[in-house]
Amino acid sequence: MLNFMMVSSPHSENALSEAISSSLSEWSMKDKLFTITLDNDCSSHDIYSANLRDHLSNKNNLMLKGQLFVVRCYAHILNVVAQDVIASIHGVIYNIRESIKFIKASPSREESFAEIALKLEIPSTKTLCLDVTTQWNTTYLMLLAALDYKQAFTTLEISDDNYNEAPSAEDWKKVEAACHCLKLLYDSAHSIMAAPNPTSNIFFS
Fold it and tell me: Where is the signal peptide (predicted)?
């Protein structure tokens, strides 16, 4: 946290960059600032960060004249990529969500599904779970668990006239491909966000 301060309206890009510059001066940090991280690709952020970079560069306070000054938020980048992957199979994901809702609607359905999985000798110990649609990592975990039970979903559709949401064989291939991509993002996010120590050095490795 750098500072709490009043910025007079309108909150123009120049006003914001001046407020940040003033706070840096107050804390004697202008000679110590290396980069700033932006949480999204908002155009106003680009403008005030450029203003701040130019101001500090003119005073020769930035390494490499500010070429490394602005760093995009890694979590935001991962989220954008993951959402693109998820959007590419949104129809299949809808069917999987509805399938899980159907199974979890009553204990008897959960029991029937478990019996089907047992008869099919599905070795998975994963539990079917619904995702939080705004959190891509939970969608990945939902798809990953559902993949293990793809045969069980098909069998359930045959045995239960009330269920007709089972993904097709082609749908499951799409899910497998999506999970392959999402795993790379999930592992990358975990390596950064679950680390108990500073991870800025990874940026340069």
Answer: none
The pLDDT of residue 150? 96
Among 48, 45, 73, 54, CA closest to 192? 73
Q: Is 129 exposed, middle or buried (0-12, 13-18, 19+ CB in 10 A)?
A: middle
Render pLDDT for 145-161 as a digit per residue (tens, 0 to 9): 999 999 999 999 999 99
Can you tell me the distance from the alpha carbon of 13 to that of 11, in angstroms, rounded to the nearest whole number?
A: 7
Helix residue ranges per DSSP H, the chain: 13-26, 43-58, 74-88, 90-103, 107-119, 136-148, 150-159, 169-193
3-state secondary structure (DSSP) of residue 43? helix
pTM listed for this prediction: 0.73
193's CB contacts (< 8 A; 6+ apart) are 75
The pLDDT value given to residue 90: 96
Give the Å distances, CA to CA, from 100 to 71, 130, 138, 157: 39, 7, 14, 13
List own/partner pairs for 39-45 with CB under 8 A and 24 or more apart: 39/73, 39/76, 40/73, 40/76, 41/72, 41/76, 44/13, 44/16
- Could you state, in order of their start, the residue ranges of all structural domains in the chain? 13-72, 78-193
**150 near 185, Cβ under 8 Å?**
no
